[in-house]
Design goal:
It is a single chain. By secondary structure, the chain is α+β, with helices and mostly antiparallel strands. The protein has two domains: 132 residues, 2-Layer Sandwich (D-amino Acid Aminotransferase, Chain A, domain 1), CATH 3.30.470.10; 178 residues, D-amino Acid Aminotransferase, subunit A, domain 2 (D-amino Acid Aminotransferase, Chain A, domain 2, Alpha-Beta Barrel). The chain has eight helices and 17 strands. Strands 8, 9, 10, 11, 12, 13, 14, 15 and 16 form a nine-stranded mixed β-sheet that branches. The two termini are 20 Å apart. 40% of the residues are buried. The chain binds 4'-deoxy-4'-aminopyridoxal-5'-phosphate. The site of 4'-deoxy-4'-aminopyridoxal-5'-phosphate has 13 residues, from helix 6 and strand 14. Pfam families: Aminotran_4 (PF01063). Belongs to the class-IV pyridoxal-phosphate-dependent aminotransferase family. It comes from Paenibacillus elgii. Keywords: Amino-acid biosynthesis, Aminotransferase, Branched-chain amino acid biosynthesis, Pyridoxal phosphate, Transferase.
């Protein structure tokens, strides 16, 4: 789809994957005016193709558009485009268990004008690629570096939008953490560096004394669709979930008191990712003996079961393409 001021979104089309030509002055290259989404399609044993909550991704895309001064996109039109694209070649959705088709919708500002002002032209595109199982050898806990120097988002900033700048701001910390053997970074709030926000591409949950706690959506955290789904699932099981500020000290104290039972991340790529270790300012905290917790495993099994069509989709999340 293309957008021009005065004309709106127009010219929907499906074309073979190819390079695109852009003016070097296109605003996206200089001012980062761009938003994106990530979602997955799965093939069931009986050959159906199911997409996980795509309406939520396009709603969130519009939330990001709002923050980045990009014109809204019609959710129904975007959904139709996504379905058409997946239908053009159903073989793209892999059959092997655990694999899926990753779908990346995005918008870039293409107006070739240097000058800090919202673009008057955009392109909306969807690209896709088959992806292997994130945990091909079984679900395994991750080690996470708690970032105490850099920040990713601040109140009033772009943290709740899915836009390139947030990820660009995270690369340095991610690189340094990787050098120390940590695969992920846990971000603290941008003002006090005290409250837990989210992991690089996951929201984060803690089980403390039988209760599940997750940082409240405070405007600088991405409103994860897996996060929302896991809260719904936990509540349907009668497990209380608290959405509130969670300080890093609270977690270390709970660990000392023996009440920090589990931690896990949630996101489209990793689904449910148990956390085996946190390292904050050199102080290591091993959670659940570094093993996958019972609740994390149950959430993982249930969510992947629903996505692959093996379990009943009681909450109405899957959309057939
Ligand atoms: N936080 C960030 C910063 C992310 O990039 C993602 C991945 N989209 C998430 C959280 C998890 O969101 P979702 O469950 O919608 O994939």
């Amino acid at each position: 789809l293309d957008y021009e001021e005065g004309r709106g979104w127009h010219s929907p089309r499906v074309v073979p994957y190819q390079s695109i030509s852009m003016d070097p002055a296109a605003k996206v290259f200089h001012y980062g005016q761009t938003v994106f989404e990530g979602l997955k399609a799965y093939r069931t044993a009986d050959g159906r193709i199911l997409v996980f909550r795509p309406d939520q991704n396009f709603k969130r895309l519009n939330h990001s558009n709002e923050r980045m001064s990009i014109p809204h996109l019609d959710v129904e039109l975007a959904l139709e485009g996504l379905k058409k694209l997946v239908q053009t070649d159903r073989d793209w959705v892999p059959e092997t268990e655990g694999t899926s088709l990753y779908i990346r919708p995005f918008i870039i500002a293409t107006e070739p004008v240097l000058g800090v002002a919202a673009s008057k032209r955009y392109i909306f595109m969807i690209i896709m690629s088959p992806v292997g199982a994130y945990y091909a050898e079984g679900i395994r806990p991750v080690k996470i570096h708690v970032e105490s120097e850099f920040v990713r988002a601040v109140p009033g900033g772009t943290g709740s939008a899915k836009t390139a700048g947030n990820y660009a701001a995270s690369l340095k910390a991610q690189e340094e953490a990787a050098l120390e053997g940590y695969s992920q970074v846990l971000w603290l709030d941008g003002v006090h560096k005290k409250y837990v926000e989210e992991v690089g591409s996951m929201n984060v949950f803690f089980k403390v004394n039988g209760k599940v706690i997750t940082p409240a959506l405070n405007g600088s955290i991405l409103k994860g669709i897996t996060r929302d789904s896991m809260i719904q699932l936990l509540q349907s099981w009668g497990v209380p979930v608290e959405e509130r500020p969670v300080s890093i000290e609270e977690l270390y104290e709970a660990h000392r008191a023996g009440t920090l039972e589990e931690a896990f991340g949630t996101g489209t790529a990793a689904v449910i990712s148990p956390v085996g270790e946190l390292n904050w300012r050199g102080e290591k905290l091993i959670i659940n003996g570094g093993e996958t917790g019972e609740l994390s495993a149950k959430l993982y099994e249930t969510l992947t079961g629903i996505q692959s069509g093996k379990l009943e989709d009681k909450l109405g999340w899957m959309v057939q393409v």
